[in-house]
Design brief:
The chain has 271 residues and is of the alpha/beta class. The protein is built from 7 helices and 9 strands; from the N terminus they run H-E-E-E-E-H-H-E-E-H-E-H-E-H-E-H. Helix 4 packs across helix 7.
């Protein structure tokens, strides 16, 4: 059933003209301006795509965009899906499986996250080098999952060391401060308590968010090299916790986004 769903989605998108993407990109909260850099060939609303989930979060636009970016054919998810929207993990990661079936060879992921490491500040970028899955489930845990690849995906290096090294080199060349750290993915949508932030500090987490990890797990099952950058939008100090303003988070993500775009633009020329 799941394979039939995916086949129907892929057939629709190929018929619509999405034929040879090489790189897939997932844009996170407040990180939509990268689309302005793309020479767009096709733009399709998720609502028009058979079996595709709908982005229900107001700051996720909900479009699949196909075009040329830095000389490469890219397929961009402008808006992603979350467990907190009521989706199961198959639905949350459906876009990754779709992009892979359409031919992407690398996956780049972005997100907005809270800084747990108190030396990291809002507006900074963090390259994810490892993660904690605190969502209480796996996107590989369903009947028939073996049909899509090995369900016992090796998570020794979920993020491509090769791509990560290129990203670090680019950031250094462009004088962009780029932290590196561990990202924890929680369900949300509520933000964390002071006790939960203390727990994450004990677990040596550097940043926390509500996405990315399920997508990366599926990428590993599909042998799809990937990298992910977090835009840090708030500072999560349990000893000095301030009320969070979602509008401010979106604004901080928007201010930091040009740094992420600069890195992705150069990276895509190379990989």
């Amino acid at each position: 059933m799941k394979q039939e769903q995916l086949n129907e989605t892929v057939a629709f998108l190929k018929a619509a003209g999405i034929t040879d993407p090489t790189i897939g990109i997932v844009l996170g909260t407040g990180l939509g301006k990268l689309v302005d850099e793309i020479s767009i060939e096709k733009e399709i609303a998720y609502s028009e795509i058979p079996n595709f989930p709908q982005a229900t979060v107001e700051f996720h636009s909900g479009k699949l965009i196909y075009g040329v970016f830095s000389g490469k054919k890219v397929l961009v998810m402008a808006g992603r899906f979350h467990v907190y929207e009521g989706y199961d993990l198959w639905e949350v990661t459906y876009g990754i499986r779709t992009m892979h079936a359409l031919g992407i060879q690398q996956l780049l992921v972005s997100n907005a996250a809270g800084a747990i490491n108190l030396t990291y500040k809002k507006g900074d970028l963090m390259l994810i080098e490892d993660h904690l899955n605190l969502q209480g489930g796996s996107p590989l845990a369903f009947k028939g999952a073996n049909d899509f690849g090995n369900i016992f995906a090796d998570m020794l290096a979920p993020y491509s060391k090769g791509i990560n090294q290129i990203i670090k080199n680019i950031a250094k060349e462009k004088n962009i401060q780029l932290h590196e750290g561990v990202y924890a993915s929680v369900v949300g949508p509520q933000l964390e308590t002071r006790a939960e932030y203390r727990m994450l500090q004990i677990l040596e987490v550097d940043a926390v968010g509500m996405s990315t990890v399920p997508e990366v797990i599926v990428a590993k099952q599909l042998n799809l090299p990937c990298a992910a950058i977090s835009v840090l939008t708030d500072e999560c100090d349990p000893k000095n916790l301030q009320p969070v303003d979602i509008t401010e988070i979106i604004a901080i993500a928007g201010k930091a986004e040009p740094k992420m775009i600069a890195i992705f633009k150069e990276l895509i020329k190379i990989i």
